[in-house]
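input
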Amino acid sequence: MWWSFGGSTVWDVGTTELLIVAAVVLLLFGSTKLPSLARSLGEAQRELKKGAAGDDEA
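output
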């Protein structure tokens, strides 16, 4: 198996790990900046999809 350790892969993430990551992100950015951070991530994802599809506006 590619990058295996103890029978599980490196990218095997459980619920507990996701909750810890969410708590750290909340502590780092705060509840006031979190909506704007999510909005900018969504816009970046849309731009990436547009670029991958070849729908450039230029």
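quick obs: The first helix runs from residue 15 to 53.
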